[in-house]
Design a protein that fits this description.
Layout: E1 4-5, E2 12-13, E3 16-19, H1 29-41, E4 46-48, H2 64-75, E5 84-89, H3 107-121, E6 126-131, H4 157-169, E7 173-179, H5 183-196, E8 201-207, H6 219-226, E9 229-233, H7 260-263, H8 275-290, H9 295-304, E10 309-315, H10 319-327, H11 335-348
Parallel strand pairs: 3-4, 3-10, 4-5, 5-6, 6-7, 7-8, 8-9, 9-10
Antiparallel strand pairs: 1-2
Helix pairs in contact: 2-3, 3-4, 5-6, 8-9, 8-11
Keywords: Oxidoreductase
InterPro entries: AKR_Detox_Biosynth (IPR050523), NAD(P)_OxRdtase_dom_sf (IPR036812), NADP_OxRdtase_dom (IPR023210)
Protein name: Aldo/keto reductase
């Protein structure tokens, strides 16, 4: 795989990134270490995590994923220099007071979170430090509409950038990024960085897959013109685009017993658990099979080959899943198949937005 430059930064990464949010919840530490080693063996140089992981978020597992990765790095001392390591500082709210209490996300909050991540990851520097979700109120994680009445921001973007700049100047962070952002947020972070000579965001990590192409509704132009790279998360639609829910749904007798939406009831009410998301996924999965592909192959090839995507973040629970996802690299979708995919989108839009 040819490495991709992230934004205007000096970071160069593989176009596939290993997501790790299952480590410490669905995936035990020994298995997580095996997956990390296999990813490195297969040529991946990009790993993404977050201070609030594992998912689903619980106070008991907050920080567990970073600790697991840190323990693996300690056992494999030559691995760190081969990797681009990304993590995230959590925003406020979202019902997780054990991560961030109160309103806002102050400079002290950001600094403390960074120190905690560095300690758990057992590293001296974070290559890409991302704001996990905006400090201000935005429609994210399945919410559809911006409501100014819900605005409760108390930490200006300029202050957040200044805090991140201090981490960069101290050598604790190389580059910065955003996640779950909007066109306004990306523009404002870039504008203020350029106006005040502060670090410029290199990336935005947002959902992008066949059942959620909302990125193409404005963010693709924003980030293209501003030279900010998309890190596409959930390219398999939280598992719906693998076909494993096609027979029994997310709760039926044929649903996989160890799948996230099956195991964790709280996730069924989220965007990926919507009945219309499953209905659309089944349409795409049937289209894949009709064209001689597995649902996983088509869904990943869609992300792997889109000009909008710099790197696709794949989440796996075993080495076999990792190999399956990596083996989909190089799959090409015909113009006719892409037209059929667009036809389904015109009919069903973005049900997991």
């Amino acid at each position: 795989m040819q490495k991709i430059q992230l934004g205007q930064s000096d970071l160069r990464v593989t176009p596939i990134c290993l997501g790790t949010m299952t480590f410490g919840e669905q995936v035990a530490e020994a298995d997580a270490h095996a997956i990390l080693s296999r990813a490195l063996e297969r040529g991946l140089n990009f790993i993404d995590t977050a201070e609030m992981y594992a998912v689903p978020a619980r106070a008991e597992t907050c920080g567990a994923t970073e600790r697991i990765i840190g323990n693996w790095l300690a056992k494999n001392p030559g691995a760190r220099q081969k990797l681009v390591l990304a993590t995230k500082v959590a925003g406020p709210g979202r019902g997780m007071p054990w991560v961030r209490s109160g309103r806002g996300m102050t400079a002290a909050d950001i600094a403390a979170s960074c120190e905690g991540s560095l300690r758990r990851l057992r590293t001296d520097v974070i290559d890409l430090y991302q704001i996990h979700w905006p400090e201000r109120h935005v429609p994210a994680f399945g919410a559809l509409y911006y409501d100014p009445a819900k605005e409760a921001s108390s930490t200006p973007i300029h202050e957040q950038l200044q805090a991140l700049a201090q981490l960069v100047q101290a050598g604790k962070v190389r580059c910065i990024g955003l996640s779950n952002e909007t066109p306004y947020g990306v523009h404002e972070f870039v504008r203020l960085a350029e106006q005040h000579a502060l670090p410029r965001v290199a990336t935005v990590q947002n959902p992008y897959c066949l059942i959620n192409r909302s990125w193409e509704n404005a963010l693709d132009e924003t980030c293209h013109r501003l030279a900010v790279s998309l890190l596409a998360y959930s390219p398999l639609g939280f598992g719906l685009l693998t076909g494993k829910y096609d027979a029994g749904g997310t709760t039926g007798p044929s649903a996989p017993k160890d799948a996230r939406i099956t195991v964790y009831e709280s996730m069924r009410g989220q965007r990926w658990g919507r009945p219309e998301a499953l209905q659309a996924a089944r349409r795409y999965n049937a289209l894949a099979r009709a064209n001689g592909l597995t649902p996983t192959q088509m869904a990943l090839a869609f992300c792997y080959t889109k000009w909008q995507v710099a790197s696709s973040i794949i989440g796996v629970t075993c080495a076999a899943q990792l190999d399956e996802n990596l083996n989909a690299w190089g799959t090409r979708l015909s113009p006719e198949l892409l037209q059929a995919i667009d036809a389904i989108r015109r009919e069903m839009r973005d049900p997991a937005q």
